[in-house]
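Sequence in, structure out. First:
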Amino acid sequence: MQVREAMTSDVLIANPQQSIRDAARAMAALDAGSLPVGEGDRLVGMITDRDIAVRAVALGLGPETPVSEVMSREIKYCFDDEAIEDIAENMGSIKVRRLPVVNRSKRLVGIISLGDIARADDGSAAWAMREISEPGGEHSQTPPM
């Protein structure tokens, strides 16, 4: 099964200049834990509820803080024509629960989550969840010692 068959294609995109309050409200309305961040037709980052909590609230930043100050700038993504099994393995390796999905022209076409993969029911989600649940990884919020 390809990513495009399991992904969510209706994706709200945050703007780097909008406030983290607005991003959090959008996440609440969508019942989602992250939003891709775009500028023009370019994907420039991702913001998660955890970014807001750990990179903003915990450091005393206010609700009007721009998304660009707390978003993750290194974007991990996948292509819509890749196999779900490969993407699940990649998600486990890089320890992320969701990835933006782009077409081969690198235009955002959706987002895929572990939930989407679990609904595809090919066993990939269980493997990815075990790997993601291991502490550490490039996107860990824990500061290095």
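Second:
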Amino acid sequence: MIKEVIVVEGKDDRAAVKKALECEIITTSGYGFPKGTIERIKSAQQKRGVIILTDPDFAGEKIRKKISQAVPGCKHAFLPREKALKDGDIGIENASPESILQALEKVRTETATDEKMFSNSDLIKNGLICHEDASSRRDFVGRILGIGYANAKQMLNRLNNYGVTREEFEEAVKNLK
């Protein structure tokens, strides 16, 4: 049982999460949130906390960002793309209950901080940018750290704002080799 309220995109995502565990869920109905949705999410965040679990695609990232900006301090769970893929369709609704639970086990809390532990030099040094396999390397590291796949700019933002420690990062990149 998870005490936080899980935010997903649609009713099929809700059904998939309900198969994985008993919890309260808020759906955004895609990017154009119905009236009152952000207020419900804010209320849930104040009372119990919120975990955002959106599709691992462009639209899911936009929804995640929109919620994060409106409701600070949310937790984030990321599902790897291949765990959410079925017949060319990407979405939480395609994930197995086990994959959803694994994503929720690696939940990260977003914290806005001026102190930046990681920089582009960390990404370059570890082949996460300026490397022929940088994209797949970022995918691997994001998976281990529970911060999902990201382009270089998003990866740096997530490393600095999702509570990733230097030790966790170094352990994750050590597994690349």
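Remark: The radius of gyration is 16 Å.
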